[in-house]
Amino acid sequence: MKRAIVSDIHGNLEALEAVLADIAKETVDSVYCLGDIVGYGPNPRECIDRVISFDQSILGNHDQGALYDPEGFSSGAERAIFWTRDQLEMPNGDPGQTAKRWQFLSELPRTVREGPFTFVHGSVRNPLSEYVFPEDTHNPKKARTAVCDDRAVCVSGAHARAGSVH
């Protein structure tokens, strides 16, 4: 099975469309989003509308921040979260579509396990708040507890480059 994996879209529809155009050139069986659909970028509604059609999506910390109080965010990220909420609640928007977007975000899982794979936004230990950096894979203790679990392959989305095809 060949999956296209995107992550950290952050409301950037133009970048998402470019990545999806590249994915369309490949032969993939499914498209997964590993979180942070919203945050910072100017098109959170449109990005959610695109991601809803993906085969699997996972909650990212900015998605959670849009749903609940954004804890532990920098002041700039917090402002972006509140702005995103305002965009998602646009008074002239379609109430049915607004409800669909909120429902989609609220139902996103933090972790998805499929066969030998574990998919998360951040780390396996703390899917929303802990990032995994390349050097972490060289620390055996952190690699066992944060980077991966008992699965053969762990896929983390935080700070990923969107558009990876695996």
Binned, the helix content reads: 25-40%
CATH class identity? Alpha Beta
Averaged pLDDT, please?
88
Sheet with most strands: strand arrangement: 3-2-1-7
Unreliable parts: 160-166
Radius of gyration: 16 Å
* Count of runs of 4 or more consecutive helical residues: 6
Number of domains: 1
Instruction: Fill in the CATH topology.
Output: Purple Acid Phosphatase, chain A, domain 2
Name of the CATH architecture: 4-Layer Sandwich
Look at the helices and sheets and give the structural class.
Answer: alpha/beta
Strand content: 5-15%
Give the CA-CA distance, first to last residue: 9 Å
Question: Which descriptor suits the 3D outline?
Answer: globular
Q: Assign the CATH superfamily.
A: Metallo-dependent phosphatases
Largest pleated sheet: 4 strands, mixed
